[in-house]
């Protein structure tokens, strides 16, 4: 993809793609089942967020962490910051490649990768999903352009105050569609992160945070790029 096409694609609001996906999902599953699926995830996520005492946000120091990569290596936040190669780091917590909303959002960020690069920003994705599923899908057929980290049991997502578990009705609907997270997640459980996007500066502090219990809502890539540009040096 050329830089010109990246500028072109990022001009299309990701919200429109997410809304279109929701409409298609409702048309395919029906209103009743869709409501159970949405409510069975958004409700528990909202409750979990409201009960948190350890959530972190803008101005907070990012907790240091190390996680295995989908390729079998180890990625460490402290080491990344110490290298000083990037002006900012975008950390995306996503539920898994089974989630169409997550895939749309990650594709939007991939399409903006040249703009993030121009802003001297690095990007990592953190998911409870086991490899090689994460690595294969995040590559989008063109080779992974960012580390995909495997968060066993959602331990790092928990440090950010993001973890929750959907209700049984939603689980059964997903199982009926062939999405059994006990088999897809690295620790064999249904623990998921509330989708969160954080921008971290060179000092390790959070300068931008977008967390929404309604997983159908994601920030626009332009918003992320703009924040990273403001930190470029």
How far apart, in Å, are the first and last alpha carbons?
Answer: 25 Å
Coarse structural class: alpha/beta
**Radius of gyration, taken over Cα atoms and rounded to an integer in Å:** 17 Å
| Beta strands, count | 9
CATH superfamily label: Glutaredoxin
Number of helices: 11
Helix share, percent: 40-55%
Poorly predicted tracts of residues: 1-9, 139-143
Q: Kindly state the mean pLDDT as a whole number? A: 90
Descriptive report:
- With 233 residues, this protein is of the alpha/beta class.
- It has a single domain, classed as Glutaredoxin, CATH 3.40.30.10.
- Helices cover 45% and strands 17% of the residues.
- The protein has eleven helices and nine strands.
- The strands form three sheets. The chain has a five-stranded mixed sheet with strand order 5-4-3-8-9.
- Helix 2 packs across helix 3.
- The longest helix has 21 residues.
């Amino acid at each position: 993809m050329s830089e010109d096409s990246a500028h072109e694609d990022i001009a299309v609001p990701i919200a429109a793609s997410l809304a279109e996906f929701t409409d298609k999902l409702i048309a395919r599953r029906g209103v009743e089942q869709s409501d159970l699926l949405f409510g069975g995830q958004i409700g528990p996520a909202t409750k979990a967020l409201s009960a948190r005492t350890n959530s972190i946000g803008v101005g907070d120091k990012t907790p240091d962490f190390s996680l295995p990569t989908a390729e079998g290596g180890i990625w460490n936040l402290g080491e990344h910051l110490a290298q000083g190669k990037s002006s900012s780091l975008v950390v995306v917590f996503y539920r898994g490649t089974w989630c169409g909303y997550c895939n749309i959002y990650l594709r939007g960020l991939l399409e903006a990768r040249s703009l993030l690069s121009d802003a001297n920003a690095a990007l990592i994705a953190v998911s409870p999903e086991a490899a090689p599923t994460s690595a294969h899908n995040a590559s989008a057929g063109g080779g992974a352009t960012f580390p995909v980290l495997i968060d066993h049991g959602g331990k790092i997502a928990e440090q950010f105050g993001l973890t929750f578990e959907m209700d049984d009705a939603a689980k059964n609907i997903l199982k009926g569609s062939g999405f059994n997270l006990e088999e897809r997640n690295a620790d064999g459980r249904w623990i998921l992160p509330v989708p969160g996007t954080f921008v971290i500066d060179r000092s390790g502090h959070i300068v931008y945070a977008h967390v929404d219990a309604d997983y159908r809502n994601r920030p626009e890539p332009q918003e992320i790029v703009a924040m990273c540009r403001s930190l470029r040096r």
